[in-house]
């Protein structure tokens, strides 16, 4: 589904001046269970469409937490607090887009953005295929 979903997202992102695309990482245990990271698959396709490089190993999820889709907003915020770490040598590039499949409460996006800003990013955008409706 990534090639199909990435096309319209890439059209919306056309012309963006960014240094790097970063998929929201899965915890290694969750990655083993699933066998792939949907955000990485989207990044791969988006990079092909936009020419912006992507890298899956520079951001790491430290906390497995529970599945976010089963959590309420308050639990989601608690699950992802300090859950991410910049693992690359050196500072984070200046202008970055974080890619995910779905944004629900924005808790994961906020946590990733905070991590990247702390690592040196000056501008962070969040790209997602879908956003859930608010209650």
Strand content: 15-25%
The overall pLDDT, averaged over residues, is 87
- In whole angstroms, the N-to-C terminal distance is 27 Å
- From the helix content, strand content and strand pairing, which structural class follows? alpha/beta
What spatial order of strands do you see in the largest sheet?
1-4-5
What is the H/E order?
HEHHEHEEHE
Number of strands: 5
Shape: globular
Q: Tell me about the biggest sheet?
A: 3 strands, parallel
So how many helices?
Answer: 5
Unreliable sequence segments: none
What Rg, in angstroms, do the CA atoms define?
Answer: 14 Å
The helical percent reads 25-40%
Tell me what you see in this structure.
- The protein is α/β, with parallel strands linked by helices and 135 residues long.
- The chain has five helices and five strands.
- The protein has helices spanning 2-13, 28-34, 38-50, 73-80, 107-118; strands at 20-23, 59-61, 84-86, 95-103, 123-131.
- The protein has a three-stranded parallel sheet with strand order 1-4-5, sandwiched between helices.
- Strand 4 (95-103), helix 5 (107-118) and strand 5 form a beta-alpha-beta unit.
- Helix 1 crosses helix 3.
- The radius of gyration is 14 Å and the shape is globular.
- The two termini are 27 Å apart.
- The model has no long low-confidence stretch (mean pLDDT 87).
